[in-house]
Amino acid sequence: MVNSFASSVTARNTVTVHRELSRLHEVELVETNRRGHAIRFAQDAARRGLDCVIAFGGDGTLNEVATGIAGSDTALAALPGGSTNVFARTIGMPNDPVAATPHLLAGLAAGDLRPIGLGRVNGRYFCFHTGVGFDAAVVAAVERHASLKRWFGHPLFIWAGFDTWLRSYDRANPQFALRCDDGRSTDDGRFAVVLNTNPYTYLGNRALDVSPAAGLSESLVVVTFTDLRVGTLVGALGSALRGGGLAGADGVIEWTGVDGLTVTAVGDGQMPFQVDGDHLGEVSSLRFEHVPEAVRLVWPGQP
User: Fold this and answer.
1) Tag placement on the chain: N or C end, fewer CB within 10 Å?
2) Which domain holds residue 206?
């Protein structure tokens, strides 16, 4: 599955990757051209009983493929083709697709297919995180300038973050309440991240380590900001860049071992949310679940 619009996907590296994969495997190349396309293609692949679907694109493409094949015997594989490639890098892939291909081939040759857990929000699966509130508003701002994403990448996200914080997001008031199925709760949510794995994202080569407790074999971790003042955000960013997570940081609540969670907007409001880096709109409520062993993943090997 190839997203030819992804930041690092080119006609040249697509030909190279296809050639290398085809040396030992029967490969069907399918290009996606709109949101939701990869979900339908992946569902069809699962119905046909194909061994594996390789998502060659960004984290959004990978998310759609995982959503399409979850619960089936068809395995998931990742090749980085986006601007950040959080999930592929988290599992040890090089960030260049041509360099990553031998690692994928080594994993396929070794038959290293292991089940992983996924998160699910309002019926949609996610591989590494869902963001609610402020970061979703930032992603929405980036998507309004999608034509610039290929060329400006991380600087565009940084600009969108500053612009959203200064001009368009209500920092002063709580935006949503969170309730875990086990009774933990807060009514003071301004920005939350529900993690299926860690890191949250990357700034260049630097990982933003939000919670080392998050992992593909663990339940979800919820990190909630109850304060969006400059000092809180700068302190959290510095802590995340140093590693070790945000547990204990001022203005931050962390819940580990979360299997079920409900997030509800304050009053009659709506809250933006993003799933694995794709903005999916604004809603009044979100229902999260952890789904163990939702999909079999091809783990990269050493070529």
Assistant:
1) C
2) 129-291
